[in-house]
Amino acid sequence: MTTTTALRTAARVVGAVKVYGGGDTAVRALDGVDVDFPVGRFTAIMGPSGSGKSTLMHCAAGLDTLTSGAAYIGDTELGALDDRRLTLLRRDRVGFVFQAFNLVPTLTVAENITLPLDLAGRRGDREWIDALVDVVGLRDRLHHRPSELSGGQQQRVAVARAFAGRPDVVFADEPTGNLDSRSGGEVLGLLRRAVRQTDRTVVMVTHDPVAAAHADEVLFLADGRLVDRMQSPTADKVLDRMKAFEVRS
Ligand SMILES: Nc1ncnc2c1ncn2[C@@H]1O[C@H](COP(=O)(O)OP(=O)(O)OP(=O)(O)O)[C@@H](O)[C@H]1O
Ligand SMILES: [Mg+2]
Predict the structure, then answer these.
(1) pTM above the 0.85 mark?
(2) Most buried in the list 90, 193, 208, 214, measured by CB within 10 Å?
């Protein structure tokens, strides 16, 4: 076991291969990816459509299984867990934010935020959740339902929900994809503050160089492979790197 690495890893994949289907129609969505997501870091994943970003995220998060290779949350290898333990691990140690918010329409904001904890029969850390409500700026909306909120506000609820159980890592797939640039900026600022101020770990898939610039590091995928990584990204540098993909393809 590798427990002596300088940075603790919240999640990682080793030799990750994912093949969808078989025979002539088989698609190699991940073609041998090694990557780790250190604790307390905000990592963005970019790459052309179909390059394997969502697949990587889903496999790293235990929402899908690898064809070969291994995925870990902390020191726990996901492939070694049966369905029940995998479900518990996802519930207790992983948070998710999706492009389409995925709030429960019949529940209030407050109920949506604590839903994963309530389902788990956990009380959660009330002080933490209370602080989260302020971080996401929804104190005066707690008793509203999602249909009474703007898109940006709904996504802020989803962010609070993702962090409510103090997960080891939050995975976000295009969390700003349905938002205008101002609301998107607020959600990104939130994710960044969660990482900075509370030492959380965030992995975010995005197409948007401006969104990626909020991260500490950007990973670039192409054809199911990790082809580059960029520390301290700026939107301009990321855009330049993305253009190189377009020229090539
Ligand atoms: N369930 C599936 N069955 C078959 N092929 C799939 C499945 N999911 C994804 N793929 C294929 O795997 C490849 C990678 O898909 P993935 O969704 O990971 O790409 P992506 O980088 O997230 O793209 P996008 O930016 O468009 O969301 C694509 O060629 C896609 O068609
Ligand atoms: Mg995708």
Answers:
(1) yes
(2) 214
